[in-house]
């Protein structure tokens, strides 16, 4: 589910986009996840996920997603 992708990335869960075509969403466009479009690419990605996965820098993830680093303070102020 595409809408959950950013949450997986934020938690450091290895995530890939799988489809007939690459959908140029914010995660793919910013290099936060890879996209595969055929069985061979999927198999290769599954083989390498545990070996090559490294958590992107948290501030880079937030910037790529357009989230301010002080989002919690902003939310608190808004709700208060």
Put the structure in a nutshell.
With 80 residues, the chain is mainly alpha-helical. The protein has helices spanning 5-10, 26-29, 39-52, 58-65, 71-79, and strands at 16-18, 34-36.
Order of helices and strands: HEHEHHH
Q: Strand count, sense and closure of the main sheet?
A: 2 strands, parallel
User: What is the distance, rounded to the nearest whole angstrom, between the alpha carbons of the first and last residues?
Assistant: 32 Å
Rough outline: elongated
If you compute it from the alpha carbons, what radius of gyration comes out, rounded to the nearest whole angstrom? 15 Å
* Percent of sequence in beta strands: 5-15%
Segments where pLDDT lies below 50 for 5+ residues? none
Mean pLDDT rating: 85
* Number of E strands: 2
Q: Helix segment count?
A: 5
Percentage of helical residues?
40-55%
Strand order of the largest sheet: 1-2
- Secondary-structure-based class equals mainly alpha
Description:
The chain has 80 residues and is mostly helical. It is 51% helix and 8% strand. The chain is built from 5 helices and 2 strands, in the order αβαβααα. Strands 1-2 form a two-stranded parallel ribbon. It is elongated. The chain starts with a helix and ends with a helix.
């Amino acid at each position: 589910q595409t809408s959950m992708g950013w949450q997986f990335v934020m938690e450091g869960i290895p995530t890939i986009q799988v489809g007939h075509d690459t959908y140029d969403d914010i995660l793919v466009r910013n290099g936060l996840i890879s996209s595969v479009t055929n069985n061979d690419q999927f198999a290769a990605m599954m083989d390498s996920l545990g070996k090559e996965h490294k958590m992107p820098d948290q501030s880079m993830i937030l910037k790529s997603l357009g989230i301010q680093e002080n989002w919690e303070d902003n939310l608190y102020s808004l709700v208060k």
